[in-house]
Amino acid sequence: MRAMILDEPELEFGGGGRHIDPRYGIDDHGPVDLGTPAAPAEIKIGIIGSQAAVEGIRRWLERCRGEISARPSRQPRLFRDFPGFDTDRSFHSKLTFDDRWMRRIHGRDLARLTGQPAQAVRAAVEVWATELERLADENRCQVIICALPEELDRLEEPATADAEGNVPDGGSSRRDETDATERVDFHDMLKARSLRHRSPIQIVRRETWDPKYRPKTSDGGARTVQDEATRAWNLHTALYYKTGGVPWRLMRGPADYATCYVGVAFFTTPDRRQVHTSVAQVFNERGDGVVVQGGPAARSKEDRQPHLEQADAHDLLVQALGLYRHEHGNFPARVVLHKTSRFNEAEKAGFDNAADELRIDQIELVWVSSGDRLRLYRSGDNAPLRGTLLDLGDRLVLYTRGSIDFYRVYPGIYIPTPIALRPVTADHQPEELAAETLALTKMNWNDTQLDQWLPITVRAAHQVATILKHAQPGQPIAARYAHYM
Fold first, then answer.
1. What is each CA distance from 40 to 21, 246, 287, in whole angstroms?
2. Which of 10, 74, 200, 201 has the fewest Cβ atoms within 10 angstroms?
3. Rounded CA gap, 151 and 136, in Å?
4. How far apart are CA 437 and CA 399, in angstroms?
5. Separation of alpha carbons 299 and 342, rounded Å
6. Is residue 54 classed as helix, strand or coil in its secondary structure?
7. Contact by Cβ (8 Å): 366, 336
8. To 10 degrees, the CA torsion angle through 232, 233, 238, 240?
9. What is the CA radius of gyration of the chain?
């Protein structure tokens, strides 16, 4: 048994600038693609919602062109002023609006969002999808913001949410993707309906843009809301990425192999009639994500976990790496594959055969599981440090959430739980794989706080799964991860 503290990974920003915190890096150096032809200098925004929501969101986004002060705190580094979103600061881009891109939902349509929760959600999805279809057909907007109808707000009770109202990692009440219980969710269902359109959508809750709105939970308590500057950071980072911008990327040394990161997860169709289907998410150190839907999977009688047949594992990785080559002009030298269930012999053989066929130099298979039962404690009341790593031989226990020296506090609202890494085949040392996983937790463009719980490979595969389970069989799906986040 060995214990150690990993250094907080740095990220790369504009002009080669480095920082461990995305907000400080963007403010000090700009996005990593600053000055390149691909960097979006203008983002055309469409909005769908009630009259009040359309006007309120547009007004708040125009306010965010200028600086928004950070929340007062005894830990001044924890909260950062939002410097404004304009061509002369931060992202060096601007949002543009046009009345033709504003789609207002009529009051009579909103009045119909009643009855049972599932019925109300499906009705709302139909109304918003109709307007989305009309707006997307015009092909003028780069991102379309959809205001979550207040009529549905009490049906969902997230904790402090990210730019789209998603619960942060480690504090989620969402069921696992392989849970057989149907989950009716406006966010996931509307995202599934939007996958055939060119422009990704961004779903926004009223508390994002309305400072007077105080959402309540079903028991009458107040729902936690992020401070305004943090909301501005998260939303504008997401909009920049969804337009094709690259806010930041992983650091890469001159001797490092060109690496492709793949996440594989599983889900059950809402009707529970279909077997589990695998989903892979491909990333590189720049953060480019490509969605791949794999073949069927089945739950094993031995370990009660979903697994792929050997041929399906082979085909999934071949398809994923084919898309990587299409994007980059070559195959990577190294593949790191994170999977949310144990690797069986058929899967290992399938993935290895694919790597041999495509002449991949290194393939490293890692089973990533959340919520390890083991806990570590520090003296006093402080949570374990983020980056705390315990090597138990059979697995690595890694605290991706915890106290952070840079913030001088534990910034979470729940007791942090570690994740477990079980390398199956690996050329790198355990601490190197753990450090890489820690860095991948920072590649989430829906939340700019540096301490996300899951690596982007697993987090993205989960997000893709929750959306694809609502897609119709044979429906064309978007390949860019920006449509799913």
1. 22, 9, 16
2. 74
3. 25
4. 11
5. 11
6. helix
7. yes
8. 100
9. 22
Question: Are 308 and 316 spatial neighbours (Cβ–Cβ below 8 Å)?
Answer: yes
- Dump pLDDT digits (tens) for 251-268: 988 778 889 999 999 887
Mean pLDDT value of segment 49-73: 95
Residue 238 has a pLDDT of 97
Sheet holding 18-19, edge to edge: 18-19, 11-12, 249-250
Note the pLDDT of residue 356: 96
pLDDT of residue 176: 38
Whole-angstrom distance, CA of residue 2 vs CA of residue 384 = 16
- Structural domains of the chain sorted by starting position, each given as residue range(s) with its CATH number in brackets: 31-242 (no CATH), 249-483 (3.30.420.10)
Place of tokens 């061509």: 87
Residue 160: per-residue pLDDT: 46
Q: How far is C-alpha 312 from the chain's CA centre?
A: 26
- pLDDT of 168: 45
Residues in the chain, overall count: 485
**In the predicted structure, residue 413 carries a pLDDT above the cut 90:** no
Angle, vertex CA 438, rays to CA 321 and CA 432, nearest 5? 75
